[in-house]
Amino acid sequence: MRQIKVRGKSLITRNWVYGTYIEGYIISGFLDATSEYITIERWEPVDPETVGQFTGIKDKNGVEIYEGDPIIASWGIKYNKEYKPVSIYKGVVKFGEYEQDGSGGEYGGAKVIGFYGDFHSGADSDEKFAELSSWAYEKEQSLLKFDEIEVVGG
Fold it and tell me: Does 139 share its domain with 119?
């Protein structure tokens, strides 16, 4: 079974804290437990707006990617030199239902649930970013599609 890990910004230190989210708190470290009680090592109040789940994916620098992270994602980097259509996207990691379209907008996409990039701008290898307003099918894409992802804040 995979571990479900979350993080949130502490209301006390404003630093990230990691563990399990329960009603406004991140808890971590169980010191003792019986059928009657649990002793928790850390019980930290967090800003609920900052809480995000770990995607299970690390970026190109080995940084864990969480829901809510701003990212730059690209595909086509690993193609050979003669055929190198690089596409680069800027956006935020989200979790939920989205429409995955692999047809380039030709057909309607399939409804999918999971972690995805909610992208607001894109570019080719020239890195001249533009709004994705005319390319609606590119706005929501699975994180697994990309050759490289980099967390650029968070």
Answer: yes
The C-alpha atoms of residue 109 and residue 104 are separated, in whole angstroms, by 9
Q: Does residue 122 share a domain with residue 63?
A: yes
**Close Cβ partners of 135 (under 8 Å, ≥ 6 residues apart):** 105, 122
Q: Which domain holds residue 130?
A: 55-151
* CA dihedral sign of residues 26, 31, 35, 36: negative
**135/75 Cα distance (integer angstroms):** 16
What pLDDT, in 10s, does the model give residues 30-52? 777 788 887 878 889 999 999 99
Cα–Cα distances in angstroms (integers) from residue 120 to residues 80, 90, 132, 135, 143, in the given order = 28, 6, 6, 10, 15
- Do 59 and 106 share a structural domain? yes
pLDDT digits (tens, 9 = 90+) for 93-147: 999 998 876 665 666 778 888 898 888 887 776 667 667 665 556 788 888 888 8
Residue reference for tokens 């680069």: 88
Pairing of strands 38-45, 52-58: unpaired
Tell me the sheet residues that pair with 113.
Answer: 97
Amino acid at 114: G
Please state, in angstroms and rounded to a whole number, the distance separating the CA atoms of residues 48 and 32: 27
